[in-house]
Amino acid sequence: MIPIPRMPGLLEGPTTQVGKPVSRVDGRLKVTGAARYAGEHAIPGLLHGYVVSSAIAKGRVTRIDTGKAMAVPGVVHILTHENRPDLAWLDRKWKDQDAPKGSPLRPLYDANVSHSLQPVALVVAESFEAARLAARLVEVAYEAEPHQTSLLMNRDITFTPGKDKGGFEPPPAPRGDADAALAAAEVSVDLEFTQAAEYHNPIEMHASTVEYHPDGSLTIHDKTQGVLNCQSWVCGVFNLPKSSVRVLSPFVGGAFGSGLRPQHQLFLAVLAALALKRSVRVELSRPQMFSFGHRPETWQRVALGASRDGTLTALVHEAVQESSQAENYVEIVVNWSGQQYRCDNVRLDYRLSRLDVHTPLDQRAPGAATGVPALEVAMDELAWKLGMDPIQLRLKNYAEADPNTGKPFSSKELRACFRQGAERFGWPDHLPPPRSMRDGRELVGWGMAAGVWDAMQNPASAKATLGANGKLSIATASSDIGTGTYTVLAQVAAEVLGLETADVAVEIGDSSLPQAPIQGGSWTVSSVGSAVKAACDQLAKRLHALARDAEGSPLAGVGSVRFADGHVVAQDDPSRRMPIQQVMRAAGLPVLEEKALSVPYALGRLRHTLGTHSAVFVEVRVDAELGTVRVTRVVSAIAAGRIINPKTAGSQILGAVVWGVGMALEEEAMTDHTLGRVMNHDLAEYHVPVSADIPDIDVVFVEEHDEVVNALGAKGVGEIGIVGVPAAISNAIFHATGVRVRDLPITVDKIRAGLAALP
Amino acid sequence: MTHPPQGPIPLTLAVNGRELALHVAPWTTLLDLLRLHLDLTGTKKGCDHGQCGACTVLVDGTRINACLALAVMQDGKSVTTIEGLSRGDELHPLQAAFIEHDAFQCGYCTPGQICSAVGMLAEGHAEGPDDIREQMSGNICRCGAYPNIVRAIGEVMGAGR
Ligand code: FES
Ligand code: FES
Questions:
Q1: Percentage of residues in chain A with pLDDT exceeding 70?
Q2: A314 in Cβ contact with A188 (< 8 Å)
Q3: Which burial class, exposed, middle or buried, applies to A174 when counting CB atoms under 10 A from its CB (0-12, 13-18, 19+)?
Q4: Residue A40 appears among annotated catalytic residues
């Protein structure tokens, strides 16, 4: 193959700002309560909207009586499908950037109900309390139809989706004959896995504050991961020009995917504001946070065949997930299994089953957090059957190139993750047999698993403006949902222009700023960071030219410069230097501004598979009689290219490990299939990890050098941290107890049933 | 349950050291009073049902969930919110420690965590990290910053001994 040219503009080390554990630049605003989130903007005359949610899962609204509700003092208006203003009717207009194939939900559009808790009315009142009371007094009559909400009862009624969503790839064609190889394998495992639906539940509930201006234009404070996505969606649905709609989200109280698509609180707040020509806020209640978007319930089968030396000879991975009746939500669940290990006979299959639920939605490491743990538990079970160390089994089948495509990895330091993670954890050469380590009442177990996620990039733009005071501002319509975007963008900019991070102000979360993709998929640093670098590179070029041409410049005729301590410095003679501010003064320029668009390095991406990798090691302690599980130690070794900020990146991994603990042990939306409704729709009954559930977590970033992924060499860390965790916990529980639970979450009842069934 | 709301009731309250004479409807929670009437939005609403701790404030020095407290029942009391912890530009040691240890991500649970930690330290029952974990478990952090929260509080607790 012809070698490809080196990516232009690669960031070379050693770096001064990039790689530093800088504290969050927005930290002070957050710890003092000064950061304002979507539902926190005080606007004179603001009205409050409260949503009335459907009591049935499927059918029609036959009558809505608003008499009692309207009688509550302070109630201004009640919007329903019967009195709503005109709305777009083409499906296309209702599609947002993250919409899968199908017809998006149109709240209050007609009498149809397609899922439980679907909004059927919005009460608007002068006070929040009046709206809430009146919402309860709206009387809605329904004609219910039979519904289906159980995936396991509908697991055989499936279809194979196509490329139904951006970023989704259907499974690759089979290679070899996996089923025959499985039947002929010397050693094999054939396992079924089930996993409950999970809800994102960011601690900030979804809210939108719509400021209505006298000229009919709107300023919208929305909880979203993509201000531009919401802006264009609002414009499409309400037929408004972009110039009349500005969407802001400088602070987002967590999202994890819930803010990828415009949610119905945004729609309802805009609808009410336009109908009443007043400013309106709609905030969902915690139960209503279970009314849209969730990680889909999943059924999987993983079957592995191997020869006695551990060489994989067969791999089958099948998955069935739920989607809604109207949209084909898809995520990559099984493809990873063809990529993680070398194997000649592979069959991967992915199907959907339609249920009467709202459309699922990407949730932290969508698909990978579901499919990879199933594979990694199967690998563990195979290792025990073979009598082989689980790390050795993984190394034995280590994929040097991507077996799905034959392409090399742009970089893959997974071996180093295994080595360094095992060392930090104290993983033994020979794992003691299951159920052999006891400490008082508790059975102790160790488990490990590997993880993988894609290193994606999308086109993005950024503007860099240098002021006469030597301070730099960066602007881009990206977002910071807690990931550290503000901080890492400041670091990247400071690096290029030789400034301190504190000299850079970052402005994001505003639809009037240069284009940036929705924040998701771990692609923000890669996409937006690259755009910031490109804009600053352009500034640097101009400064270089201006410095060279300045009268009496010490840099006259200097062909190559670098930037340090606020100076332009000759590359090979540090004594020839000029302060940036002086360069601008000499040129008579009070400000210097550059805007850049950065696009993925297409050739490099075409020729390689790009991903992050991880190895997770876990210790659990299980009460021998009660079956309660404590996770007592976690080591997560991550290979994700260059780490821009080990502090904020470390937090991304910590948080994702916590998510992994939730998935393994706690999180479960329990549906009453008679009602077609999630029963535990609050934070008392839907359990997420609390501090007492989480031990100290040891995060190791493994050195990884990548010259293909982007000019920063950084792959992004939002998702990779969760991927291996549920499997490592599950494997550790088996090691502690001898009990395998292949139904997530692994709750006490399941462990106790397993303990009781032990020989 | 369709009683029309009663009219506003007079109420005096010291909020972050400022004496306020207010008229508040009896169904207004302390949380909504702070956020919607006084524009002190540093105190967060994460559930409105006493399940998440985002609304934690200090009333007469004791940490409580402001969403479970009716405003009119706080008559004559003194409320401290996140906005009242720092002295001018000088952060409360816990606020500084939270920044230093990156004890938050999205920052939405953070005011509640910090107020809760102030209250917990005043209670004086925590000896080490395991106690902090246990006694801070009423404050959910969905971002999962727990290990850093425990470190940040531990540092301040250690310094206070
Ligand atoms: S808002 Fe008060 S505990 Fe959640
Ligand atoms: S920092 Fe986001 S919920 Fe705690």
A1: 100
A2: yes
A3: middle
A4: no
The pTM assigned to this predicted structure is: 0.97
Two tokens, residue A653: 């991994």
Residues A641 and A726 in one domain: yes
Residue A684 near chain B (CB below 8 Å): yes
Structure ipTM over 0.95, yes or no? yes
CA contacts within 13 A on the Cβ side of A576: 18
Cα of A648 to ligand 1 centre, how many Å? 26
What CA–CA distance (Å, rounded) separates A570 from A555? 7
Q: Is A704 within 8 Å of A640 (Cβ atoms)?
A: yes
Measured between beta carbons, which residues in chain B are less than 8 angstroms from residue A256?
A: 142
Q: A304 Cβ partners below 8 Å, 6+ apart?
A: A182, A188, A189, A312, A314, A315, A316, A378, A379, A382
Specify the ligand 1 atom closest to the Cα of B51. 3
Q: What is the pLDDT of residues B102-150, one digit of tens each?
A: 999 999 999 999 999 999 999 999 999 999 999 999 999 999 999 999 9
Task: Work out how many domains chain A is built from and give that number.
Answer: 2
CA A53 – ligand 1 centroid, Å: 21
Q: How far is the CA of B68 from the centre of ligand 1 (A)?
A: 8
A167-208: per-residue pLDDT in tens?
999 999 999 999 999 999 999 999 999 999 999 999 999 999
Domain segments of chain B: what residues?
9-83, 93-159
| Per-residue model confidence (pLDDT) at position A4 | 81
Phi and psi at residue A758, in whole multiples of 5°? Answer: -65, 145
The SS3 call for residue A321 is strand
Q: Quick one: A674 and A581 in the same domain? A: no
The domain that holds A532 is classified in CATH as 3.30.365.10
DSSP assignment of B75-92 equals: TT-EEE-GGGTSBTTBPP
Count how many pairs of residues, chain A against chain B, have C-beta atoms within 8 Å.
Answer: 188
Give percent of chain A above pLDDT 90: 97
Question: Which residue from A204, A283, A694 is facing B147, i.e. has the nearest CB?
Answer: A694
Tell me which of A583, A599, A615 is where a domain ends: A599
The CA–CA distances, whole Å, from A645 to A198, A634, B99 equal 30, 21, 14
Neighbours of B105 (CB within 10 A): 28
> Do residues A753 and A611 both lie within one domain?
yes
A722 and A628 housed in the same domain: yes
Going from the C-alpha of A296 to that of each of A433, A549, A668, B142, the distances in angstroms are 35, 61, 11, 19
Q: Give the closest residue to A260 by CA, choosing from A518, A514, A523.
A: A518
- How many Å is the Cα radius of gyration of chain A? 27
Q: Which residues pair with B131 in a beta bridge?
A: none
CATH 1.10.150.120 fits B93-159, yes or no: yes
- Looking at the structure, tell me whether residues A398 and A486 fall in a common domain: no
**Which residues in B lie closer than 8 A to residue A689 (C-beta atoms)?**
144, 146
- What is the extent of the structural domain holding A750? 389-456+606-757
DSSP per position, A464-488 = EEE-TTS-EEEE-S---SSS-HHHH
Burial of B40 (0-12, 13-18, 19+ CB in 10 A): buried
Measured between alpha carbons, how far is B41 from B62 in angstroms, rounded to an integer? 20
Domain B9-83, CATH class in plain words = alpha beta
Q: Quote the tokens at residue A386.
A: 């073979």
Sort A439 into a burial class: Cβ within 10 Å, 0-12 / 13-18 / 19+.
exposed
B155 touching chain A per CB within 8 A: no
Which residues on A lie below 8 Å from B1 (Cβ)?
136
